[in-house]
């Protein structure tokens, strides 16, 4: 089956180009499992009895790692104990784009017969190919493609295993969003550092305790870990902002040299190399009359009254802390130089900073 997608694209010279993308979807891509009676495969890669010699899972299973797990746990995947792993084409492509060395190591593993790593070309399989949805990022689309393929495997093998023991497919992910969405579609997933821990147990680099193998407890543990991880990220970000504000609060209004990083319709974004600080000088402040602004996208430049700002222009600005809203204190920048009448502010009188008293030795 041929799926083609046609769309129009505007060229640089202003013309219109018609682009046709062809994508072949096939129904002769096999699952690669020995237990399957439906697929017409000659030498299946995935073993009938894929028991990993550990208490990782109590049931036989195939593992599908997502891209991040491959990128971060390639050492573990190389261990001889880890076998019967399904590498999705989506994952393979993402790994190839993100790390050439890991991609090479993964290809080496796939070529080792005794590892039983199977590459499944999910992007060309009629039932697992998905189109990117409007507003969906390429990343989210790929995550979804991985979940769709993992789900397809679960259902496909369920059909096949009438006489065999229940064989499950386990999606390994350390991405919170992916985990939640996968759980909604009732896949078996492990999240976060649990993935690392379980893989470490599997290669006997670590020991475990019964609770870690309990699915309910593990799920609660993962949720808690993810929650704490997220909160610590928030705290980290808030802390950076807090300390930047504290710093400028203690220094008072400063007169600093900076460079124009970007120009916008109503503002310039200035970088102060001395502090590694970026800030915005707005020209349409509420309490002042707006000067004449001409924004030219092509430059890009912004003309404020008679002065034109280009990217990388040197400017002088004041930096101060606006504490008018105690909940949302903000770093403010105003223009000192170039002097534009009605726009620039006078340079503040900066008192020399009191030196820190020296410690007696
Ligand atoms: Zn099959």
Automatic annotation (TrEMBL):
It holds the Pfam family PIN_4. GO terms for molecular function: 3'-5'-RNA exonuclease activity; endonuclease activity. Gene3D superfamilies: 5'-nuclease, Nucleic acid-binding proteins. GO terms for cellular component: cytoplasmic exosome (RNase complex); nuclear exosome (RNase complex). Residues 61-180 form the PIN domain. It comes from the Eukaryota. One of its GO terms (biological process) is nuclear mRNA surveillance of mRNA 3'-end processing. This is DIS3 homolog, exosome endoribonuclease and 3'-5' exoribonuclease.
């Amino acid at each position: 089956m041929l799926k083609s997608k046609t769309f129009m694209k505007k060229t640089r010279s202003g013309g219109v180009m018609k682009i046709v993308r062809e994508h072949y979807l096939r129904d002769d891509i096999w699952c690669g499992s020995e237990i399957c009676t439906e697929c017409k495969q000659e030498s299946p890669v995935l073993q009938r009895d894929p028991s990993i010699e550990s208490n990782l899972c109590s049931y036989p299973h195939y593992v599908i790692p997502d891209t991040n797990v491959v990128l971060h746990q390639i050492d573990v995947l190389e261990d001889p104990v880890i076998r019967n792993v399904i590498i999705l084409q989506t994952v393979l492509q993402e790994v190839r784009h993100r790390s050439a060395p890991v991609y090479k190591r993964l290809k080496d593993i796939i070529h080792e017969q005794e590892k039983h790593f199977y590459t499944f070309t999910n992007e060309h399989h009629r039932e697992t190919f998905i189109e990117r949805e409007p507003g969906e990022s390429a990343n989210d689309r790929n995550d979804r493609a991985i979940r769709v393929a993992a789900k397809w495997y679960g259902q496909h093998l369920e059909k096949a295993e009438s006489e065999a023991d229940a064989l499950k497919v386990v999606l390994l992910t350390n991405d919170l969003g992916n985990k939640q969405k996968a759980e909604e579609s009732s896949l078996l997933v492990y999240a976060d550092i649990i993935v690392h821990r379980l893989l470490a147990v599997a290669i006997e680099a670590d020991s475990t305790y019964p609770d870690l193998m309990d699915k309910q407890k593990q799920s609660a543990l993962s949720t808690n870990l993810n929650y704490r991880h997220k909160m610590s990220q928030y705290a980290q970000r808030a802390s950076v902002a807090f300390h930047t504000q504290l710093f400028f609060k203690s220094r008072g209004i400063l007169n600093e040299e900076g460079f124009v990083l970007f120009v916008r319709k109503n503002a310039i974004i200035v970088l102060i190399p001395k502090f590694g600080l970026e800030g915005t000088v707005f020209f349409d402040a509420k309490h002042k009359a707006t000067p004449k602004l001409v924004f030219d996208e092509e430059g890009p430049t912004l003309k404020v009254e008679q002065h034109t700002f280009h990217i990388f222009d040197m400017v002088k600005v004041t930096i101060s802390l606006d504490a008018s809203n105690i909940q949302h204190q903000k770093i403010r920048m105003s223009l000192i130089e170039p002097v534009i009448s009605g726009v620039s502010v006078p340079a503040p009188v900066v008192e020399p900073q009191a030196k820190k008293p020296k410690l007696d030795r």
